[in-house]
Structure formats: structure tokens, C-alpha cells
């Protein structure tokens, strides 16, 4: 029994490790694909060479990130069959078709146009190439749509029937399954997080090069565009996160109790605990710094509204409070820090000092990884907060795992750690190497000049100097 417990723990650690690596890359590619589409669209509209040059600069980075995302995603699917075969068997009739839709729509769309986007910049007409860029950007969003629908159904399962063999079978309407209660909120929150992740990564690169050369036109343009995105999207994301939290309170109250650190119910208004050390053994938050009744105001819009605590939940159904509590605060704290950078940039822009305030640029560089950390913290909040269930309230994690021995899972976990840090470590090093180079006035071609091309292409126009 003890060995089986260790096998489940190691299987969970392995899945958490691999999905954490994987999640970073789609969070970047979703936003970066849209950024590339905007850059190419602006070039076609304005004819300014700075947009074409930035497109080529970030296209190289997108290609590397996309490849690492595909490779890390393949590993994830294998784990469903190796470590979580019981879950795959029972939930397969519902989540299997949704995953298939992701392949048949998003994957085929991306695969069909990715080659044109990456290698056709000197070989096809500019309008056709722009269509390819738009298609890849749409494919990243469609992929997120289906994957988040699957995850949301596991969080708020509806529209199913229980088969005689214990399987979850689709009911009369797939739309009920796809558009489950938490899906719209999770989709908006996650996609906005991807845009912010990209904005702060692009902004950090632009700020880094502005600190070295304030007159670099590419650095100025990418920094300006990134700060616009931060200033506009960060407040929207905070609002969307609040709406997502209210939805979670309705459908997964135990998760919100863990996020808030509410071990005890509060019949006359619950405090907002800013910081503290959750003590699950004593059912309290030690050294708590709190604002009286503020949690009731946020969650119920009423200072005196009662809020239930974890004392209303059986101990066996409580999520790990400490992890959820701190992951949530990291995510929220970084969200407000992003808002602060966005507002700071608006002040600098209003004073016509956006490119002349080195402390703003240093802060933007420091905030470069913030989006990646925030999406990981958000994922931890969502997934650990769902515990001890894989399908919320219906299928426990301990009942979802394959009958494996702990040494077998440990061996594969060690192999994953070694391979991931070696392969993806080199990939991340190469990405940083690409970002370290400043955007140049005439980016080198990705695959050499064509012997013959259809129409006037972005690359040809830049090299010939036809655009300013």
C-alpha cells in the first residue's frame, strides 16, 4: 500500500513537471503568433520596413518556441496511457473526441500553413504569406480552445452519463460538454494571460536593447507596442480573473476556500488574508496579515456577506491549502505588478519619455519572465485546487492512476528531468541568444534569397530598400 502511494505521488510529480515545461511554450506561442500577424498586417498597411524587420526577428524565435512546444506536448499524451490509464479508460469517451477535434482543426491548420509562414517569406506573394500567418495565429487559438475545454470539463463536469462499467459517456449534446460552466471564463483568462506573457517578454527584449541604444528603431517600436498591450490588457485581465474567481466560487467552493486561506467559516463577513503561513494541522493561517471583511466584499460584493470555510468540507476532500494559497498570491501579485508597469509606461508616454526613462526599461527587463511565472502559478492554483480529484467531485486522483510500481515511475521521472533540462535548457539558451541580438535594419533572410518568387515579398522589399 505504501509503495502504491509513492507510485501515485511520483506519477503526479512527473505529470506536473512535464506539463509545467509544456505550458510555458503555448503561453508564448499563442501571443507571439498574434503579435507576428499584427506586425505583418502593419507592414502591409503602412509599408514601413521596421515592421517587416521585427517580423523576421520574432519569426526565428517563434519557430524555436513552437518546436519545443510540440515536442513537450507529445510527451504529455503518452502519460495518459502509461501513468493514468484508469482515468483514460473512464474519461476517454468524453475527452478523447475533444482532443481529436484539437488535432483535426488546430493541428492541421497550423501544420498546413506553418511551412509557408516560416519558409515562404521569400517565395510567395505578400498577401498569401499574410494569410498563412493569420492561419497559424488562428490555429494557436483553436488549440487553446479545445485543450481548455477538456480541462474545464474536468473542473466542472456536465453533459455526461455514467455507463455500467463506470465510464463517463457523452449525453445528448456535445455543446453542453464543450461549453461547460467554467470554460468561457477559463478560456478568456488563459488567452489574456498568454497575450500578457508575450507582451512582457517582447517588452523586456525591447527595453534591454533600449538600455544599450535608445535610437534603435526596432527596439523602440517593439517596446512601445508591448507597453500598449500591458496597459490595455492588464486591467482587463484583472477583471476577467475576478469573474473567473466568482465562477469558481459557485462551482468549486473548496478551491476558493484554499485560495483565500479560509479554514473557518465567517458568518458576518470574511477577511482578506494578504499574507500568512497556512497551518492545515491546526486549521488556521499563522501570522496572518488581513483586511477585515474585504474577502466578502470581493467575492460577494457585500462587507457582511457570510462565507463558508473548509470546516464545511470533509478533510478527505480538502485541497492542499499551502500550495494553492501561495500560488494564487504569486499570480495576483504579478498581475498587479504588470498593471503597474503598464500605468508607468502610460505616464512616460504622456510625458514623451517612453524611450528615455532607464528605470522604466530596467523594470521592464526585470518583468520579462513575469508572465511565465504567473501562468505557472495560475496553473498550480487551478490544478492543485482541484485535488483530490481528477474529475472534480466524481473521480479521485488515487483512483485514476495506473497500477505501476514506484521504482518504475521514479526511473521515468529521473529520465524526464535529465532529458528535459538538457534539451530544453539548450533551447532556452538559444532563444536568449537570439533575443540578445538587437533588431537590425535589414534582417538576414531565414532561408536565403529565392531564385524566383511570386509577387513582391516582405523580405525582397526590405532588402531592396523599397520601404522606409
Mean pLDDT: 86
Structural class: mainly alpha
End-to-end C-alpha gap: 71 Å
H and E string = HHHHEEHHHHEEHHHHEEHH
Helix count equals: 14
The major β-sheet equals:
2 strands, antiparallel
Q: Pick out the low-confidence regions.
A: 443-468
As laid out across the biggest beta sheet, the strand order is 1-2
Number of strands: 6
| Backbone CA Rg | 24 Å
Estimate the helix proportion, in percent.
55-70%
Proportion of residues in β-strands: 5-15%
Shape: globular
Which helices and strands occur, and which strands form pairs?
Blueprint (H helix, E strand, L loop, with lengths): L1 H45 L2 H34 L2 H35 L6 H30 L4 E3 L5 E3 L3 H5 L4 H30 L4 H35 L1 H8 L11 E8 L4 E8 L2 H7 L20 H30 L7 H9 L3 H17 L2 E3 L3 E2 L9 H31 L21 H7 L4
Antiparallel strand pairs: 1-2, 3-4, 5-6
Helix pairs in contact: 1-2, 1-4, 1-6, 1-12, 1-13, 2-3, 2-7, 2-13, 2-14, 3-4, 4-6, 6-7, 6-11, 6-12, 7-8, 7-10, 8-10, 8-12, 10-12
Membrane topology: Multi-pass membrane protein
Family: Belongs to the cytochrome ubiquinol oxidase subunit 1 family.
Protein name: Cytochrome bd ubiquinol oxidase subunit I
Which features characterize this protein?
two-stranded antiparallel sheet; disordered C terminus; 6% strand; mainly alpha; two-stranded antiparallel ribbon; 69% helix; 468 residues
Amino acid at each position: 500500500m505504501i509503495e502504491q502511494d509513492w507510485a501515485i505521488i511520483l506519477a503526479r510529480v512527473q505529470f506536473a513537471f512535464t506539463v509545467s515545461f509544456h505550458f510555458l511554450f503555448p503561453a508564448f506561442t499563442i501571443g507571439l503568433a498574434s503579435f507576428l500577424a499584427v506586425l505583418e498586417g502593419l507592414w502591409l498597411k503602412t509599408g514601413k520596413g521596421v515592421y517587416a524587420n521585427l517580423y523576421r526577428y520574432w519569426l526565428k524565435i517563434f519557430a524555436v518556441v513552437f518546436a519545443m512546444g510540440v515536442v513537450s506536448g507529445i510527451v504529455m499524451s503518452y502519460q495518459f496511457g502509461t501513468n493514468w490509464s484508469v482515468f483514460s479508460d473512464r474519461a476517454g469517451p468524453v475527452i478523447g473526441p475533444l482532443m481529436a477535434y484539437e488535432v483535426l482543426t488546430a493541428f492541421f491548420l497550423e501544420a498546413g500553413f506553418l511551412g509557408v509562414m516560416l519558409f515562404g517569406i521569400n517565395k510567395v506573394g505578400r498577401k498569401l504569406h499574410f494569410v498563412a500567418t493569420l492561419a497559424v495565429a488562428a490555429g494557436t487559438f483553436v488549440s487553446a480552445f479545445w485543450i481548455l475545454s477538456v480541462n474545464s470539463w474536468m473542473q466542472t463536469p456536465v453533459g455526461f452519463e455514467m455507463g455500467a462499467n463506470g465510464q463517463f459517456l457523452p449525453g445528448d449534446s456535445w455543446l453542453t460538454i464543450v461549453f461547460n460552466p467554467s470554460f468561457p471564463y477559463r478560456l478568456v483568462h488563459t488567452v489574456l494571460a498568454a497575450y500578457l506573457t508575450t507582451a512582457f517578454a517582447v517588452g523586456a527584449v525591447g527595453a534591454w536593447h533600449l538600455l544599450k541604444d535608445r535610437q534603435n528603431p526596432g527596439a523602440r517600436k517593439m517596446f512601445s507596442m508591448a507597453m500598449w498591450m500591458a496597459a490595455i490588457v492588464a486591467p482587463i485581465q484583472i477583471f476577467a480573473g475576478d469573474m473567473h474567481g466568482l465562477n469558481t466560487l459557485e462551482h468549486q467552493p473548496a478551491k476558493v476556500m484554499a485560495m483565500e486561506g479560509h479554514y473557518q467559516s465567517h458568518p458576518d463577513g470574511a477577511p482578506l488574508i494578504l499574507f500568512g503561513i497556512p497551518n492545515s494541522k491546526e486549521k488556521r493561517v499563522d501570522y496572518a496579515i488581513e483586511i477585515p471583511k474585504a474577502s466578502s466584499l470581493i467575492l460577494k460584493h457585500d462587507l457582511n456577506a457570510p462565507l463558508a470555510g473548509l470546516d464545511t468540507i470533509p478533510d478527505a476532500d480538502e485541497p492542499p491549502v499551502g500550495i494553492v494559497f501561495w500560488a494564487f498570491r504569486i499570480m495576483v501579485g504579478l498581475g498587479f505588478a504588470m498593471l503597474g508597469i503598464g500605468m508607468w509606461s502610460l505616464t512616460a508616454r504622456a510625458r514623451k519619455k517612453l524611450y528615455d526613462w532607464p528605470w522604466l526599461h530596467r523594470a521592464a527587463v526585470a518583468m520579462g519572465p513575469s508572465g511565465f511565472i504567473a501562468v505557472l502559478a495560475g496553473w498550480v492554483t487551478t490544478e492543485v485546487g482541484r485535488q483530490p480529484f481528477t474529475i472534480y467531485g466524481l473521480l479521485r486522483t488515487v483512483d485514476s492512476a495506473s497500477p505501476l510500481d514506484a521504482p518504475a515511475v521514479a526511473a521515468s521521472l529521473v529520465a524526464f528531468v535529465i532529458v528535459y533540462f538538457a534539451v530544453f535548457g539548450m533551447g532556452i539558451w538559444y532563444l536568449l541568444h537570439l533575443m540578445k541580438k538587437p533588431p537590425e535594419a535589414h534582417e538576414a533572410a531565414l532561408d536565403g534569397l529565392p531564385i524566383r518568387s511570386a509577387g513582391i515579398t516582405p523580405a525582397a522589399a526590405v532588402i531592396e530598400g523599397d520601404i522606409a
